[in-house]
Design brief:
Blueprint lengths: L11 H10 L2 E6 L13 H14 L5 E2 L22 H18 L3 E6 L5 H13 L4 E5 L15 E2 L2 H10 L22 E2 L4 E4 L2 E4 L13 E2 L18 H22 L12 H14 L1
Parallel strand pairs: 1-2, 1-3, 3-4
Antiparallel strand pairs: 5-9, 6-7, 7-8
Length: 288
C-alpha cells in the first residue's frame, strides 16, 4: 500500500492495524479563500496537505484527510471564498478528534494552513486536554526561519507562500498577476499592520476588519507576524527551489517535533494543583 500512513487510502482493517502500530495522528487543515490576484483559492489547504504528507513519510503517524474549508468569512468579499463559522469548525474538529480518540489516538499534531482557524483549534485543544490528549498546532508560515533565517513570511500571498505553491505545482500561480502588497491606511494617521492591528502615534490598537478594508486586490502585508526587516520583496522573486527547501525542511523539523512530543503525558484535570488538594481535603472530611 503506497503511502500507507494516509488514512484515506486504508481499508478499515488496515486502519485498525495502523492504530495498533501508532497512536499519533496528524490532521491537516486549511481554507478555501482568495489569495491575491495570482495564487489559487486552495493555497492554504493544498500546502497543509502536502506538508502533512511529507511529515507522514518521515514519522510513524497516521495522516487524516485534509479539511479544505475553515473560518475565512473576512475573505468572503472576494468571489470563490468558502467559510464555516468558528462554531461549526470547532464542532467539526471536536467530533473528528472524538472519532480518532475512540480508535486509539493519544497525540495530535494539527498542520494548519490558515490563521483564521486558530480560535477553533484552541477550543478543540482544550477539549482534548480535558481528556488527557496532548495536541499541538503548527502554522508553517511562522516556522520558515527554522529552515533558513532569511526566509521570513511577509504576509498574505507573499513570496514565501508563492514559492511553496510553485514547489507544489508550477502551473497553479498566475505569476503575470503577482503584485507587491500595499496595505491601505484606515485614515491619514492610522496605519494598518494587518486586519487585526492598527498603529497610531507609536502605539498598537486592535481592530477587526475585512479584507477590502485593507486591500483592493487581496494581497496583504502582515507586519506584526514576522521579524522580517525588508517588506519590499515582491512575490515575483518566488522560486520553486525555495518552496521545495521550505517544505522539506519543515517536514524534517515537524518529524523531529513529533518524536519529542510523543513523550508528553498529561495528568487528569484536577488531579494536580489546588483542585486536587481541595478534593483530597473533602475526601478526608468525608471519612471523618
Amino acid at each position: 500500500m503506497a503511502e500507507g500512513f494516509l488514512l484515506e487510502r486504508m481499508t478499515w482493517p488496515q486502519a485498525q492495524a495502523a492504530f495498533k502500530r501508532t497512536s499519533f495522528v496528524v490532521l491537516p487543515l486549511g481554507s478555501t479563500e482568495q489569495h491575491g490576484p495570482h495564487l489559487p483559492l486552495g493555497t492554504d489547504f493544498l500546502l497543509a496537505k502536502e506538508l502533512a504528507r511529507r511529515v507522514g513519510g518521515r514519522a510513524n503517524v497516521i495522516v487524516t484527510p485534509t479539511l479544505p474549508i475553515g473560518y475565512a468569512q473576512y475573505h468572503a468579499v472576494f468571489p470563490g471564498t468558502l467559510s464555516l463559522s468558528e462554531e461549526t469548525l470547532t464542532r467539526a474538529l471536536i467530533e473528528i478528534c472524538g472519532n480518532l480518540v475512540r480508535y486509539g489516538a493519544t497525540h495530535f499534531l494539527f498542520v494548519n494552513g490558515h490563521g483564521g482557524n486558530m480560535v477553533a483549534l484552541r477550543r478543540c485543544g482544550e477539549w482534548l486536554r480535558e481528556r488527557c490528549v496532548p495536541a499541538a498546532v503548527s502554522c508553517w508560515w511562522e516556522m520558515t526561519h527554522v529552515v533558513n533565517p532569511e526566509w521570513l513570511a511577509l504576509g498574505h500571498a507573499d513570496y514565501v507562500e508563492t514559492s511553496a505553491i510553485l514547489a507544489l505545482d508550477e502551473s497553479l500561480p498566475d505569476m503575470s498577476a503577482a503584485v507587491l502588497a500595499v496595505n491601505k491606511p484606515l485614515t491619514g494617521q492610522i496605519a494598518l499592520d494587518d486586519l487585526r492591528a492598527a498603529r497610531f502615534k507609536g502605539a498598537h490598537l486592535a481592530v477587526n476588519l475585512i479584507m477590502t478594508d485593507i486591500t483592493d486586490d487581496g494581497a496583504m502585508m502582515e507586519y506584526g507576524m514576522t521579524a522580517a526587516k525588508d517588506f519590499t520583496i515582491p512575490p515575483t522573486v518566488a522560486r520553486k527551489e525555495i518552496g521545495e527547501t521550505i517544505l522539506e525542511g519543515l517536514a524534517n523539523y515537524l518529524a523531529e517535533f513529533i518524536e519529542e512530543f510523543r513523550q508528553v503525558k498529561l495528568p487528569p484535570v484536577g488531579s494536580v494543583g489546588p483542585l486536587a488538594a481541595l478534593g483530597a481535603s473533602k475526601a478526608g472530611l468525608t471519612q471523618l
